[in-house]
Design a protein that fits this description.
Elements: H1 4-20, H2 24-30, E1 36-41, H3 48-52, E2 59-64, H4 74-86, E3 91-97, H5 101-108, H6 115-128, H7 130-135, H8 138-158, H9 161-168, E4 174-180, E5 187-189, H10 197-214, H11 223-226
Parallel strand pairs: 1-2, 1-3, 3-4
Antiparallel strand pairs: 4-5
Helix pairs in contact: 5-6, 8-10
Bound molecules: cobalt (II) ion.
Cobalt (II) ion binds next to α5.
Length: 229
């Protein structure tokens, strides 16, 4: 069955844009010049443009299950490289979300199928912060792992050769770690971002500690030190 309603909606939308903003598509057809790159989860509830109010042409997007940045993922790395080196984006935003199914599967060891191998990367994050996570109240653990996953994926972006080389060349580019609430539509900055590797590494411990404090978790003396690397 053809998806007539979607195609009809598209025609209406394109006609409305032409009516209200003559030249909109002509301008975009010549070049894209986005200032932002978005690395997010594939979850249908987290559409990058809509929740940030960005228009076509304004954000370059890569999405996968649970917004993971794997060191050897040529798909993600190629996208980041194109955004940074060719499009010269000024900001890379890693955005996770609460209630992420991929993170939940990782936390609870749920078997999904092929994706188990992908989710293993989030279990690496879980295992890195195992002591503090296990000491936290059960009802907060998923939120915490969703936040920790963003923090660690920001680190992975910053440790990629693409970002390291760009910063080495003096390219002003800032990486951000955000999390989105599918329950309230709000974005929160996890304050792990920065515009230099040293800066991001410096903020990492504080950001991790903030996750545990905010979720009223454990009386661990030094949460960051409890992480296993
Ligand atoms: Co998700």
């Amino acid at each position: 069955m053809p998806l007539t309603h979607l195609l009809n909606h598209n025609r209406d939308w394109a006609a409305q844009m032409v009516r209200e903003r003559p030249g909109f598509f002509t301008g975009l057809s010549q070049q894209q010049n986005p200032r932002y790159m978005w690395i997010g989860c594939s979850d249908s509830r987290v559409p990058a443009n809509q929740i940030t109010g960005l228009e076509p042409g304004e954000v370059f997007v890569h999405r996968n299950v649970a917004n993971v940045m794997v060191h050897t993922d040529l798909n993600a790395l190629s996208t980041v490289q194109y955004a940074v080196d060719m499009l010269k984006v000024e900001h890379v935003i890693v955005c996770g979300h609460y209630g992420c199914g991929g993170v939940q599967a990782a936390l609870q060891n749920v078997r999904i199928g092929l994706a188990d191998n992908w989710i293993r990367h989030i279990q690496d994050v879980r295992d890195k912060h195992k002591a503090a996570l296990e000491a936290a109240p059960k009802q907060h653990q998923l939120d915490m792992l969703c936040e920790l996953n963003v923090i660690e994926q920001v680190m992975n972006v910053c440790h990629s050769t693409v970002l390291k080389d760009a910063w080495h060349r003096g390219h002003q580019i800032m990486v951000h770690g955000w999390i989105y609430g599918v329950h309230d539509g709000l974005l929160v900055d996890l304050k792990v971002g920065g515009s230099a590797l040293e800066q991001v590494e410096h903020l990492h411990a504080a950001a991790v500690e903030h996750v545990f404090k905010q979720n009223r978790a454990p009386a661990l003396k030094n949460i960051a030190a409890a992480a296993t690397y």
